[in-house]
From TrEMBL:
Belongs to the NAD(P)-dependent epimerase/dehydratase family. GO terms for biological process: galactose catabolic process via UDP-galactose, Leloir pathway. InterPro entries: Epimerase_deHydtase (IPR001509), NAD(P)-bd_dom_sf (IPR036291), UDP_G4E (IPR005886). Its cofactor is NAD(+). Residues 3-249 form the NAD-dependent epimerase/dehydratase domain. GO terms for molecular function: UDP-glucose 4-epimerase activity. Keywords: Carbohydrate metabolism, Isomerase, NAD. This is Unannotated protein. The keyword Cell membrane does not apply. NCBIfam families: galE.
Amino acid sequence: MKILVTGGTGYIGSHAVEILMNSGHEVTVLDDCSTGHLDSLPPTVRFIQGSLLDPDLVVRALKGCEAVMHFAGKSLVGESVKKPDLYRQVNVAGTKVLLDGMNTLGIKKIVFSSSAATYGEPEKSPISEKAQCVPTNPYGETKLAIERDLSTAALTQHLAAISLRYFNVAGALKTQRGWLAERHEPETHLIPNALRATKESPLRIFGRDWNTPDRTCIRDYVHVVDLIDAHVKALNALVDSKHHIINIGSGTGYSVMQVVDAVSRVKNSELATVDAPRRAGDPAVLVADISKAEKLINWKPVKGLDEMVEDTFKAS
Ligand SMILES: NC(=O)c1ccc[n+]([C@@H]2O[C@H](COP(=O)([O-])OP(=O)(O)OC[C@H]3O[C@@H](n4cnc5c(N)ncnc54)[C@H](O)[C@@H]3O)[C@@H](O)[C@H]2O)c1
């Protein structure tokens, strides 16, 4: 299939490009490289450098494609609080430009990178897609706004769309050119930050008095290779003019201490940590109910925490 991958030079998008091309798909990448890395791309990919906000360029990138995997966007929660307009412009307006281009060219299939940030701080865990969405930051609000636009486009332009609400993504893939690494700047994710921690700059553990078995917070992680498998399965499931929303996570969750122990095992030395107070708005447990993913797209993760930590370490 001919697929446009937006954000294909970023962490997750570059894994998609690699896996799609290795399984015989023809890929075009559209990316402005604002947070991505050109050297993540295979040399043979069709690459168009520029922004989603440029309608002519978007139509050029879409020409000849049958489907879109839409990863491009801004995704730092803290930055979104400081620059909400930038997030609305790139994420929401940028996606609208993409949907308009798809409409112009009659392209009907899209898989979108949504986020668990759409839920905010749900009271019940595991979190099902039916949970109420009350995002607590502009980033989550933009993802929810895009999902709404996709529901509208399913009705008005007969789009077949799936939004995958990822929880925390980790891990990496080894290619013939070397490892594709997670290279966010700043890095806000626990696993890469735990791997970087040193005695001089220990990993902060926010609260050790949570109502969980080891008293630290529990979060849900998914290996990036499992995540791209979910994208491929979602793409194959795009047959009707509907918009489906599906959680993608491990379904069980891992505590901060489980992550700390996994990092210590992989590095063969005890990870330096320091206790810090709870952060405002942090729920004790955030775990995805992934039963809909299994039912609708026949997807289940196969890689666990050790593989996520090990691969992130090897790629760093
Ligand atoms: N990493 C995670 O744990 C996680 C969790 C939930 C959702 N997501 C979502 O997955 C997607 C990919 O995340 P990532 O971690 O790979 O982020 P990333 O920052 O590494 O990748 C985003 C890519 O989009 C590109 N981009 C940004 N603005 C653009 C624009 N205007 N035009 C064209 N390209 C543009 C960037 O250059 C970058 O290559 C994002 O939409 C993010 O919100 C990620």
